[in-house]
Amino acid sequence: MKIARFSHQDTIRFGILDGTELVVLAGDPLFAGFDTTGERVSLADVALLAPVIPRSKVVCVGRNYHDHAAELGNEVPKQPLLFFKPNTSVIGPGDTIVRPPQSQDTQWEGELAVVIGKIAKNVSAADAHDYVFGYTIANDVTARDLQKPDGQWARAKGFDTFCPLGPAIETDFDYSQGEVITRLNGEVKQQAPFADMIFDIPFLIEYITAAFTLLPGDVILTGTPAGVGAFQAGDVIEVEIPGLGILRNTARDALIA
């Protein structure tokens, strides 16, 4: 099922997508399950929000596709290359990505995102899927011109609005045959199957949880394929994963007082 987080009549709620309607849930399904209120609301009457706001962290995997490592002139990592995005970087479908004045080369990176459903520590790859609540779409927005000179990636990856997520969480998604497609103003820039990942999702969950605990609502961004590039104010960036939907955001420059 697809779970959305939405705003309706000045209240933020969760619902199950059912055609053009949302079946309203009694609470956050990560913690309250899937009990419903009996209400239905039309999608046309709500504003979709990021389907999850991580209470703890967004864990990202760098250079997880051979072709992306090559296009940036980097070696393929021998083990997952991890970094974090702050939860303040998260925005939802339709929200605006803000290009910061510190960067002249702000780029898209379309990715599959994994939403963790329960406390996970020292999880084996064999058991990894038991800890997954569902899957959604992400754009790992990056200030490329700050990434290398900074030496570490916290600033380049962590600006406000640099982690669009959505439009919904699919709890039953077979990514083994899936792919990610990124478009800039309607033109395809990235398209690659998830089978091209260097480290697959079960391995990533095992590797990450061997280092630190994942909490319900934490999100793992699984890496981006080749085709990244810069966008400008007014551009529309779409990341599509068939079966999950389309995450669409428009960019603008920061307002400087």
TrEMBL record:
Residues 57-250 form the Fumarylacetoacetase-like C-terminal domain. It comes from Microbacterium stercoris. GO terms for biological process: carboxylic acid metabolic process. Keywords: Hydrolase, Metal-binding. This is Fumarylacetoacetate hydrolase family protein. Signal peptide: none annotated. GO terms for molecular function: acetylpyruvate hydrolase activity; isomerase activity; metal ion binding. PANTHER family: ACYLPYRUVASE, ACYLPYRUVASE FAHD1, MITOCHONDRIAL. Gene3D superfamilies: FAH, Fumarylacetoacetase-like, C-terminal domain. Residues 1-51 form the Rv2993c-like N-terminal domain.
